[in-house]
Design a protein that fits this description.
- With 318 residues, this protein is mainly β.
- It has a single domain, classed as Methylamine Dehydrogenase, Chain H.
- Helix content is 7%, strand content 54%.
- The protein has 1 helix and 28 strands.
- The strands form 7 sheets. A 5-stranded mixed sheet has the order 7-6-5-4-28, with no helix packed on it. The protein has a 4-stranded antiparallel sheet with strand order 8-9-10-11, with no helix packed on it.
- A hairpin with a 5-residue loop joins strand 16 and strand 17.
- The longest helix has 21 residues.
- The protein is globular and about 45 Å long.
- It starts with a helix and ends with a strand.
- 51% of the residues are buried.
């Protein structure tokens, strides 16, 4: 009996270890001009597949709980669902207008899609992808992020120069605050205490209290900042600067820019590896992804992905 118990325990450990090896992280990069999504294996940094997605794909949101990836398709009037295990399309959903920003709640239960032309957001239940609520927000909603407790949704309204806070329990707008000119990419720290927005036209990043959208600071960065990612336990913030072909690094304690890192041409989407150290930057005009080491603040790899690499949103699975 003791031997049998030991054997069973060992077998379970082997099964658990093998399942962990299979569930490796990927980066899903939307190639707008190629109408596909490039899949990068983050263990090897190799491009392993390109999945056809029609409709000029832009936005990416990974549902870590359900093993799904949602791709916004502005010319497809909605979004496409990819299965992480099979790396295949599983569904297409119509929303209307031009979907750009897309995000999943941390618990994986809700998907939010921003409609650029209709000035609205649509909230879906991820179990059956049924529409729960469609809400009018500001002009040209783009970046989206949900708080760690799944209670609050934040929306960057680009043409209004505002960020809106939406109560996901009551499904109504709680607050809207002015930020810099043309906010686009937004992100929250892990504790959900501060929200950061990349303001394309004012060349800066707004820092606000996530609780009440009280303005804390504005930090100057490079030309036409687009999107934002954290690394090293939220101590560093990385911002893609489209016109300068570089990434600004901000110390989140001092709220000062400490470095600019040269990357590819027209950097846009940015996400952080599960190791919290390596940052992946999609370069739109180059068709590449630059990999930055947050410890050395240098580019350590460049990966060819396809034409028009944008990857706007959370594009790394775990």
């Amino acid at each position: 009996m003791p031997f049998l118990r030991i054997y069973k325990t060992f077998s379970l450990l082997l099964l658990f270890a093998s399942s962990n090896l299979i569930a490796q992280p990927y980066a899903f990069i939307t190639n707008q001009l190629d109408n596909n999504v490039a899949v990068i294996d983050l263990k090897t940094n190799l491009l392993i597949k390109s999945i056809p997605v029609k409709g000029k794909p832009v936005g990416v949101a990974v549902n870590h709980q359900l093993g799904k990836v949602y791709i916004s398709t502005p010319e497809g009037n909605g979004f496409t669902v990819l299965d992480i295990k099979s790396l295949q399309q599983s569904k297409q959903v119509k929303v209307g207008g031009a979907s750009v920003g897309i995000a999943v709640s941390p618990d994986g239960q809700r998907l939010v899609v921003a409609d650029w032309y209709e000035n609205s957001i649509s909230i879906f239940n991820t179990d059956d992808l049924q529409l729960e609520k469609k809400m009018t927000v500001g002009k040209s909603p783009s970046g989206l992020v949900v708080s760690p407790d799944n209670r609050w949704l934040y929306v960057a309204n680009r043409m209004d120069d505002t960020i809106s806070q939406i109560d996901l329990k009551k499904l109504r707008i709680r607050n809207t605050t002015k930020v810099g000119a043309h906010p686009f990419g937004i992100n929250l720290d892990k504790k959900g205490t501060r929200i950061y927005s990349a303001n394309v036209e004012s060349n800066d990043v707004s820092v606000l209290s996530a609780k009440n959208l009280k303005r804390i600071a504005r930090v100057k960065v490079g030309g036409r900042p687009y999107a934002i990612a954290f690394a090293l336990n939220d101590t560093l913030l990385f911002v893609t600067n489209q016109d300068d072909n570089n990434v600004s690094v901000i110390d989140t304690q001092t709220l000062k820019e400490i470095k600019r890192i040269e990357v590819g041409d027209k950097p846009e989407g940015i996400s952080t590896h599960t190791d919290d150290r390596h940052i992946y930057v999609a370069n739109w005009f180059d068709g590449t992804v630059s990999v930055i080491d947050a410890h050395t603040l240098t580019v350590v790899n460049t990966i060819e992905t396809g034409e028009g690499s944008r990857a706007f949103g959370d594009f790394i699975s775990r």
